[in-house]
Amino acid sequence: MASQLWIKKPLEKLMQESSGEGNQLKRTLGPGSLIALGIGAIIGAGLFSITGGAAANQAGPAITISFIVAALGCAFAGLCYAEFASMIPVAGSAYTYSYATMGEFIAWIIGWDLVLEYAVGAATVSISWSRYLVKFCEGFDVHLPTALTVGPWDGGIINLPAIFIVILMSLLLMKGTQESATVNGIIVGLKVAVVIIFIVLGWKYINESNYVPYIPDNTGKFGEYGFSGIIRAAAIVFFAYIGFDAVSTAAQEAKNPRKDMPIGILGSLVICTVLYILFAHVMTGVTPYTAFKGQDGIAPVAVAIESMGTPDASGAIHPDYPWLNRAIIVAILAGYASVILVMLLGQSRVFFSMSKDGLLPRVFSAVHPKFQTPVKNNTMFLVFVSLFAAFVPARVVGEMTSIGTLFAFILVCIGIIVMRKQMPDAPRAFKTPLVPLVPILGIFTCFFMMAFLPLDTWIRLFVWMIIGFDVYLYYGIKNSFLSNRLPAAIAAGSKTVGLVGIGLAVLLAVIAYAHHVQTDGADTGIYYFSMIFALIHLVTFGMAQAKKA
User: Fold this and answer.
1) What is the pTM of this model?
2) Residue, of 261 and 59, whose pLDDT is higher
3) Which helix (H) or strand (E) holds 84?
């Protein structure tokens, strides 16, 4: 009976659901809209904000190498995503693919992980949007109070601008996917133009001395410059590539998903990779990477533009394009809005699919009769993401998004190997080349980058996944439509989930202790929280096992 956990959703059933009547999403997106959707999600906080911090603290000028490493992982995963999207054009992305290939338990894990990726990703970008809004207002000598523009961990009380943009984008999503795509397309055109203008104008101000040393010597601490710094920076800026996978969540709203989904996924990835490498090269060339340290690290573009000028007799640089700084910040504000829009779209569609399978309450798959969008679903994430954006630091949510995304990509790559073996004759409009080599390379590259992320990021991932196990154990497994809610199947599945949960709780305690030792006890809060959280779940899952014995 434990095999019920590994029950797979038949392809025929998935296709039937996507084309059925009733509680369905509206198909309105063509290939151009899908590419724009991908670019809208990809170019954002990762490029304009996180790049500066990663260059200043981890990689130095070699941040360009970090972007190439991250792009390789994305390329391998993107090819796998493209095959799945052409085979299974259903909302839900990696969650749906995992359900068809590796069973319900793995699908739940990846679905819950996608909550981390998209919802926390939207929070990260909204925090950056707030920072740029403050900088924009300062250009007009308007100073917004710090207490109301940053969270408590950054010296404020609440980040109200971040809440505002999340609410605004959520309301637009509730109105309709076509309307959202139109607004996103306009913003994407503006955003790409800004990136190209920055590259073209900045190229002539590159100072070759800023690239020396290209790879700064390691400080003696793992992840601070040197090779380990390049890889850690790659794992951090990996967040910048999130977007092409968000395209796959809109498969059920594409006009011709079998043909257009691979174009949208791979097209947006290629365009953005080229722009990223050129952008990072110019950014670290016009000003020393150390200039991005401190409070302006969240706004590296503005810092770089201020260095695009000719020094006077005293050595002070006067920007040649003072207008560009303000114009580019306006474009960035609009661009961030499109990223938030696509992240919220992706998250709501994942929960939509999980709800239709019975793993979450039906309210998440309820579609508004007029707008044909999951309005209640959007409303819930409006609140959830707003809370993260209002109170959690940008670094924390950014790294949480990166580790969640890398984990999702690994499971998608594994899914392609499984699918090729179990369903070799299933129709595919696009085929991942060199299977199993490409998926294996994707798994290796993504896990390699995960391993270089800070231990506190791993702690947060384990805490989040254990919470997901709680939800699945006490709701999902009992209400799954595929398991037919058989008592014996539920009992057997609950035992397996409980055992895995015990393993995760032990790993959480081990990693928390390792982090405590690594930081010489400076992480008191997260250390004691993790230990108490792990202990509670060891007791909870242990008692559940004892009752079933």
Assistant:
1) 0.78
2) 59
3) helix 63-87
